[in-house]
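User: Here's a chain of 99 residues. Predict its fold as tokens.
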Amino acid sequence: MPTKKKSPLEIFAETTAHDLARFLIDSYNQQRHEAGAGPRPLDPYAVLGVDPGDPLTVVEAVYRAKSKVFHPDVQGTGNAERFKQIHAAYEAIIQGHPG
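Assistant: Prediction complete.
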């Protein structure tokens, strides 16, 4: 029995805010890349491992936890480059956060 093809409206209704944000970020990065704008920037949400819909308190808690692990002064797990990426991602998220 063939399955009914979903209309664009039905597909859109099933799309979560996270999926939509990821699609927009990926589209923007692809356009930048095709325009020769250099390497594609990292998605700040992916760097921190949070969703775009997460409250700022969750973003801050994840940032603090990852910062403690990757801080350059921490013996064994310190990683200056990763720490810079985490900090830049956090700054990008809080600057664009609606509240």
